[in-house]
Amino acid sequence: MGVLKNEVPSWIALFVWAGIQVGLFGYYFYYFHTDPRFAYTRRILGFGLAFARAPANCLNFNCMLILLPVCRNLLSFTRRYLCKCCLRSLRRLLDENISFHKLSAYAICFWTTIHTVAHCYNVEQYVAAQSSNTGFSVGNVSAYQLSSLGTGQCPVSAKATNWVNPICDRNSHSVLEAFKIFPAVSGIIITLTLIVIVFSATEFIRRSYFEIFWFTHHIFVIFFAFVLVHGLRGVVRSQDGSHDVSYCGDKFSDWGRVENGVLVEPKCPLPEFQSNTPSTYFWIIGPIVLYIIERLIRFARSFQKVTISKAVKHPSKVIELQMQKDGFSMEAGQYIFIKCPSISRTEWHPFTLTSSPEEDYFSVHIRIVGDWTEALAKAVGADEQEFQDPSKMPLLAVDGPFGTASEDWDQYEVDILVGAGIGVTPFASIMKHMWYTYIQSKENNVGNCKLKKVYFYWICPDTNAFEWFSDLLGHLEDQMDEKNCADFLTHKIFLTRGWDTNFARNVALHEEEEVDVVTGLQQKTNYGRPNWDQIFSKTSEDHPKTSIGVFFCGPAVLSDTLHAMSNKHSSADGAKFVYNKENF
To answer: In this structure, are residues 72 and 97 in contact, taking their beta carbons and an 8 Å threshold?
Structure first.
C-alpha cells in the first residue's frame, strides 16, 4: 500500500514520459525510413537518415520539458491555485521538479549522442558519395550519381532546388566539410555547451564549487539559441511528388532528358528537392516564453525594497534575519532566494522561511558556512558585540516565496516531521503555523483543521545545534500546557555526536529532573540514532486506518531510509504513510 501511495504516481509519470519518447522515435524512424520523398536521400545515407532524425524529435520533446521544472513561480502558482483540488498524489509530483529536470537532461544527453553519431556517419556518407561511385544504390541510380545533381551551383545555395548532397567538393575530407555546413557547426556548439553544463552540474562541482555550477548552468542560453537555429539551413532534403521514385529509380539517364522539346520520360523530370520546415521552435518556443516571463518576474522582484528589521545572533554560527517587504505573502514551509548586491550582484541563495504567516515579518535562519554567508554575517554585524542599526543594514533582494511539499501538512490527520541538522529550519515555520491553526480551529471554530497529532524528530550532530531552536519548542510546550493540549505535539531530539562518558554521567545524575539537562525542555533528549523501524511501527499501531504525512528535510541517505520506512509500514487496512521531501 505504501508503494501505491508513494511510488505509483511517479512511476506512471515516468512511464508516460518514456512512452512518448518511444512513440516519437518509432514514428519518425519509420517515417524517414519509408517515406518516398526521402528515397534519394536514403540512397546516400541509408539507415543514417532515420537514426539522425528520430532522436532529433525526442530531443525537441525533452528540450521542451527541461525548462518547466525550474520555473519556480509557475510551479508555485500551479500548486497554490490549479492543484489545490487535485489528488495529493498528483500535487506531490510537483515536488519532484528537480529530479525531473535532471532526468530530462540525461535524456537530452542520450538522444544527443545518437543524433551526433548518426550525423557524423552521414557526413562520411556524403563525402564518400561525392568522391567515388559507391554507396547505397537501387536500380541504376547510385549515391554518386545523385550527388552530381546541382554540382554547378556549388557552394550549395539554400534556394537551389536540384541538389541532394550538401557537399560539392569531390576531393574533400569529412572533418573539413563538417565545418562548412551550418547545421554541423551549430551542432558542435550545442554539444560542447551541453558537455560543459552537464559536467559542471555533477555533485562534486555543485557542492564544492557552487559558483562554477551557477555560472556555467546559465550558458543554457547559448544552448537554446543554437538549438533554435540548428535546422534553418536544412541539409536533409526531400524531393517533390512530380518525380515518380518507384518508376524512375532505374532510369537515371532519362531524368530531365528532352527530345524535340518533350520529356522522354514524362514521369522523370529532374527531381526538385527542398529542405524540411524546421520544427524545433514549435516544440520549445512556449517553454522559452514561460521561462522569460519567469525571469522578468524575478528581475522585477529584485528591485523591490526589503528592510532588515532585526538581526539575531544564535549559537552554532547561526544568524536570524527578520525582514519586511511590501506585498509579501507566504505560507508555512515555503522558501525564498536572497541576494546581497554588496557581496555579489549575481549570486542568489535559497533559504527556508522560519517565520509563520501570522507574524508581521518574515525570517530566515542562516548557518555561517562558506564565503557568501560569512560575508553576509559580517555585513549585518554578526561579528560585532551588537548588530548594526536597521537603517545601516545592507540592501537585500528577495525572490519568492516558493512552494514546497511541506505546504501539504494540513492534508493529513497525523504528521511526522523529521529534520536533520540545519534541515530543521522549515519546521520552525510549520510548527508555529500548525499550532496557531489548530488552536484557532479548536477554540474559535475558525477554519477546519484536519490535523490532530504531530510527531517531530530532530537529529542533531552536537549540543550547540540545540540552542537556537529549543526556544521555539519550549514556547510551544508552554502554550500547549496553558491550553491543555499537551498531546498535540510530541517532539524527540536525538544527539548523534558531541557527547562522551563524562557528559553521559552528568545526564544520568539529572535524569529525575522534570526538564532535560541539555535543552531545558520537558521531553528528554535521546542519544544515538533513531530506530525508524520501531518508530514507524509504533505510530502505525497508535493511528490505524489513518493517512499520515511524513515530511523530511535533510541529507539524501536519511531520506532514502524514511522513504523505505513509509512504504514498509503502510498497509491497505492500516496506517498509510505518505512521504514528502523538501527540494530546493
So the answer is: no
Sign of the CA dihedral 559, 354, 307, 77?
positive
CA 420, distance to chain mean position in Å, is 23
Please say whether the beta carbons of 421 and 479 come within 8 A.
no
Query: Using an 8 Å Cβ cutoff, are 10 and 96 in contact?
Result: yes
3-state percent breakdown (helix, strand, coil) of the chain, nearest 5: 50, 15, 35
- Is the bond preceding residue 278 a cis peptide, omega within 30 degrees? no
* DSSP calls for 470-516: HHHHHHHHHHHHHTT-TTSEEEEEEE-SS--HHHHHHHHHTTTSSS-
Question: Omega into 401 within 30° of 0, i.e. cis?
Answer: yes
- Confidence bin at 411 (pLDDT 50/70/90): confident
Q: State the cell numbers at 395.
A: 540592501
Non-local CB neighbours of 394 within 8 Å, separated by 6+ positions: 308, 340, 342, 343, 376, 379, 380
498-543 pLDDT, tens per residue?
665 666 565 555 555 666 655 556 666 777 788 899 988 888 888 8
User: Binning pLDDT at 50, 70 and 90, where does residue 137 land?
Assistant: very low
Strand ranges inside 379-488, DSSP E: 397-402, 414-420, 453-460
Find where cell 537551389 sits. Answer: 160
pLDDT of 95 reads 77
Which helix (H) or strand (E) covers residue 338, if one does? strand 335-339
The set of residues, in sequence order, having a beta carbon less than 8 Å from that of 183 and lying 6+ positions away, is 230, 231, 233, 234, 235
Among positive and negative, which fits the CA dihedral 376, 380, 381, 382? Answer: negative
pLDDT band at 88 (very low <50, low <70, confident <90, very high): low
Query: Would you tell me how many other CB atoms lie within 10 Å of the CB of residue 84?
Result: 9
Closest CA to 136 of 7, 276, 41: 41
Query: Which residues does 51 contact at the CB level (< 8 Å), separation at least 6?
Result: 29, 114, 118, 121
Residue 124 in 3-state DSSP? helix
Residue 435, C-alpha cell as written in the block: 499550532
Digit-coded pLDDT (tens) for 414-467? 898 898 877 777 888 888 888 788 777 776 665 567 788 889 888 877 656 556
Identify which of 230, 167, 225, 221 has the alpha carbon closest to the alpha carbon of residue 197.
Answer: 221
Burial of 204 (0-12, 13-18, 19+ CB in 10 A): exposed
Q: How many helices (H) and strands (E) does the chain have?
A: 21, 18
- How far apart CA 49 and CA 230 sit, in angstroms, is 16
Under a CB-based contact definition with an 8 Å cutoff, are residues 410 and 435 in contact? no
pLDDT digits 0-9 by tens, 270-311 = 877 877 777 888 899 999 999 999 999 888 888 888 888 888
Tell me the per-residue pLDDT of 41-85, one tens digit each, with 9 for 90 and over: 888 888 988 999 999 999 999 999 999 999 888 888 887 766 555
User: Which helix or strand (DSSP H or E) is residue 363 part of?
Assistant: strand 362-367
For residues 356 and 446, give the distance between their C-alpha atoms in angstroms, rounded to a whole number. 17
How are strands ordered across the β-sheet holding 547-553?
526-527, 489-495, 453-460, 414-420, 547-553, 576-581
Mutual angle of helices 220-229 and 182-200, in 10-degree steps: 160
